[in-house]
Each structure stands twice: as C-alpha cells, then as structure tokens.
Amino acid sequence: MERTFIAIKPDGVQRGLVGEIIRRFEAKGFTLVGLKMMQVSRELAEKHYDVHRERPFFPSLVAFITSGPVVAMVWEGDGVVAAARKMIGATNPLSAEPGTIRGDFGISIGRNLIHGSDAIETAQREIALWFTPEELVAWRPAVQPWLVES
Ligand code: DAT
Ligand code: MG
C-alpha cells in the first residue's frame, strides 16, 4: 500500500495547527501508520533536505526545521503521495489555493507549515530516514469498506 511522509514544521506546531492538519488527513480517509514529535537534529535535517544542498536558502531551511519541535507522520492509502501534495498546496503559501493547508494558514515561503513527499520514491527514502520499521504500524481501519470499494 502506498505511503507518504508528512512533517508538521516548527511553525505549524507553534501555531497550534497539529490537530487541524491531522484532522484533514483523517477526514479525507487516509490511514495514519506512524506518528512522533521530535526535535530534529542537524544531521537529519541536512539528509532530509539533501536535494536542496546547493540552494541559497539551504542554511535557513536547516536552521528552521531544527529550531523547534516537528511532528513527523506516515500516512497510507492509494494515491496518498500526490493527494497529500494537493492537500498541502503550492510551496509559496501566497500562491497556494484556498482550501489547501498552506493556502488556508500561511503567508510566507519560509514558514509554509508542512512538508510532504513529492513522489513515491521520495516518500520511500524519507520514511526510511525518519522512521524505523518498528515505529510503523500496519493496521486496517474498520471504516475501510465505507472508504473504498473492494
Ligand atoms: P515543497 O516543500 O513544496 O516540496 P521544495 O521541496 O521545493 O518545496 O522546497 C523545500 C522547502 O524549501 C520549502 O518548503 C520551503 C523552502 N523553499 C523552497 N524554495 C524556496 C525559496 N525560493 N526561497 C526560500 N525558501 C524556499
Ligand atoms: Mg519538496
């Protein structure tokens, strides 16, 4: 089953949006299979943002993600990677559509609240980076027959 990595960044935690963001993914029908709050190390931050290493904003990106608690999650469901990106919205919250998380709650690219994997292969890499296999729980919600046709 497809899985994606989602992280509520320090601004999302500080602004009290943890519940709201989890609510949206639950209400949509995706399944939460991993969840932890953590203080991100510099090492993890640099690995996570490795593709952006050469970008001018890389130092501030690492400084920000390590500046306070982050809520790291793994969500499961068919099509969850692309659907989560749609729910999150464009990178710059000012361009993000209303109805998306960034579109509804943000105004600045450096404070865009949430991370979501951009492709299935990225999700696999990020899940392995942030979670051990034991931290992930495979379970089937009882409402599944009311969410998907068998
Ligand atoms: P996304 O988080 O939508 O996947 P990304 O992977 O291109 O966006 O960039 C990672 C993060 O880096 C993004 O959430 C915010 C920051 N960022 C991206 N482009 C930026 C820019 N031009 N200036 C400042 N920060 C930027
Ligand atoms: Mg990205």
Task: Itemize the secondary structure elements and their pairings.
Elements: E1 3-8, H1 10-14, H2 18-28, E2 31-39, H3 42-48, H4 58-65, E3 69-76, H5 80-88, H6 101-105, E4 114-116, H7 120-130, H8 144-147
Antiparallel strand pairs: 1-3, 1-4, 2-3
Bound molecules: 2'-deoxyadenosine-5'-diphosphate and magnesium ion.
2'-deoxyadenosine-5'-diphosphate is lined by residues 52, 57, 61, 91, 109-110, 112, 115, 118.
Query: Largest sheet at a glance?
Result: 4 strands, antiparallel
CA-to-CA gap between the ends? 14 Å
Number of helices: 8
String of helices and strands? EHHEHHEHHEHH
Give Rg in angstroms.
Answer: 15 Å
Portion in strands: 15-25%
Ligands, ions, cofactors:
2'-deoxyadenosine-5'-diphosphate, magnesium ion
Mean pLDDT: 98
What is the global morphology? globular
Structural class call reads: alpha+beta
In the sheet with the most strands, the strands line up as 2-3-1-4
Q: What are the defining features of this structure?
A:
single chain, 150 residues, alpha+beta, four-stranded antiparallel β-sheet, 8 helices, binds 2'-deoxyadenosine-5'-diphosphate
Q: Any overview of this molecule?
A:
This protein has 150 residues and is α+β, with helices and mostly antiparallel strands. 40% of the residues lie in helices and 17% in strands. It contains 8 helices and 4 strands, in the order E-H-H-E-H-H-E-H-H-E-H-H. The protein has helices at residues 10-14, 18-28, 42-48, 58-65, 80-88, 101-105, 120-130, 144-147, and strands at 3-8, 31-39, 69-76, 114-116. It has a 4-stranded antiparallel beta sheet with strand order 2-3-1-4. It is globular and about 50 Å long. The two termini are 14 Å apart. Residues 52, 57, 61, 91, 109-110, 112, 115, 118 line the site of 2'-deoxyadenosine-5'-diphosphate.
